[in-house]
Each structure stands twice: as C-alpha cells, then as structure tokens.
Amino acid sequence: MRRLGRSVALTVSVVLLLTAILCFASVWPIADGGSVASDGELTVDRSHASDGYVMVKGRPSEKRLKLRVKRGDNSLYYDINTGGEYEIIPLQYGSGSYSFELFKNTQGTQYAAAGPVSAE
Q: Residue 7: its pLDDT value, please?
C-alpha cells in the first residue's frame, strides 16, 4: 500500500512539474527572430511589438551599456547587460514608431552613442 502511495505521489509531482514548465514557456517573452533590426552594435527583435515588448541585445562589451527607448518627445533609459544576451524592453508609450539607441560608457558617467535602430 505504501509503495502505491509513493508511485501516485511521484506521478503527480512529475505531472505538476511538466505543467509548470509548459506554462512558464508559454508566457515568458522570447526573441524568436521573426522581425529583427540591427546596426551591428544593437539588435532589436520586434517580433512581439504588438504584444507590448521588444527584445534587445548589444554586442558583448566590457563597457557598461545603456539603451534609450524613444517615441516622439518621450524617452526612457535602461541599463542592459554587457554579455550580448537578449533583454525584455516594454513599449510603455503604446503602439507606434519607436527608436532605440545604444550608448557605451566612455568614462565615469559619460556615454557615447554606439548604434540606433528604428521599429514600428
């Protein structure tokens, strides 16, 4: 009887784990490459812009990176990773045309433009 209880518990645990993995994969943003723009320094995957986000990555760098997201007169700045990994960037100003520009740290708090990309 104990053996049956353990088998049921193990089966239920495996089913719950698989369900959690599938749910996580279905809601976590991804860069699927359907619509990509790049200038060599900055890559923007616009595949999910209609869902309210883009995925961005800079070329791997030893310098700190900042991203400017601009729509009209509104701008937001984000620190992004230096390892060349995609990051989720929300499109907080609604639908429309956005521009994205990467800045690399030159010294202290000074940054220089490294690459612009536009997205609809």
A: 72
